[in-house]
Design a protein that fits this description.
The protein has 275 residues and is mainly alpha-helical. The protein contains 14 helices and six strands. The longest helix has 16 residues.
Length: 275
């Protein structure tokens, strides 16, 4: 599957208004968390935040040590785009500014991001978000600050054509199309899917313009096959699954057994729901 290069860019330009999460929705989302969010001591909370950084794919964009990554070194027509050096950028943020960036897609200075996946991160429970921030703040500063973006002709064309949208706009659009609610018994699976699977498969998990399939495809898999996919990145047949192979092996393998089972139960129930 093809993922546009700008999908992985955390890039900030110009200004925009904040898109706040309604209080009632925020309260509901805050009640759901990954395992470990209720850790009673600081080391355990940091460990939880570190695991979340992997599950949510922070290293995939910002580099293994989160000191930034140049995505367009080999594609100069896009311009100069770095995912930020988080160890240098985060000390400039208040907790409120970090939450605004994560949930609303709004940068503290430049305001607009291209494309930080805030559309999925807006659903993170409060305790998960707090643990993630605590872990990121615990990292020692290293490397150089990431340079400001420079839009190349291809980037400008994709933005003008609407194939790439600013994070704050996606936050608003995705709120209108959440994954189907299959009841309290599938709440955890829906929550985990909304902040992980949705990044590629779209807000309602219905696929993304031909690049990724509707997750109804889970109905063709057995539970054991899905367990394998989400731990080893290997599917039903020995074929190249593209990005999913890496995501399954490197990110979803870090889910706890309960989280993984909840996601599998949810996507299978979603595939079997009355249409």
């Amino acid at each position: 599957m093809r993922i546009p290069i700008l999908l992985y860019l955390s890039v900030c330009v110009t200004a925009c208004d904040q898109a706040p999460i309604p209080g009632a929705l925020k309260q509901r989302l805050a009640a759901l968390t990954f395992d470990g969010a209720d850790a009673a001591d600081a080391p355990a909370r940091l460990a939880h935040g570190k695991r979340l950084a992997t599950v949510l794919g922070c290293q995939g964009c910002h580099g293994k040590d989160l000191t930034g990554k140049n995505f367009t070194a080999d594609e100069p027509e896009f311009g100069i785009f770095f995912a930020s050096n988080l160890t240098r950028a985060l000390p400039d943020y208040t907790d409120e500014e970090f939450e605004r960036l994560m949930r609303s897609g709004v940068h503290r200075v430049r305001a607009q991001l291209w494309i930080m996946p805030s559309e999925t991160f807006q659903h993170l429970g409060d305790a998960d978000l707090e643990s993630l921030l605590a872990y990121l703040r615990s990292l020692p500063s290293a490397g150089e600050r990431s340079p400001a973006p420079v839009l190349g002709p291809k980037a400008k064309a994709e933005i003008a054509g609407g194939s790439v949208k600013p994070a704050d706009q996606l936050v608003r659009e995705w709120k209108a199309s959440p994954p189907v609610d299959l009841g309290p018994g599938h709440a955890l699976g829906r929550y985990v899917a909304s902040v992980t699977c949705a990044e590629c498969h779209g807000p309602a998990l219905a696929g993304d313009e031909g690049d990724t399939p509707d997750l109804d495809i889970a109905g063709a898999y057995s539970t054991s096959e899905l367990q394998s996919l989400l731990t080893t990145g290997k599917g039903k047949a020995p074929r190249d699954l593209g990005l999913m192979a890496k995501v399954g092996k490197n990110r979803f393998s870090q889910l706890t057994p309960r989280e993984r089972s909840a996601v599998i139960a949810y996507v299978k129930a979603r595939a079997e729901r009355p249409q």
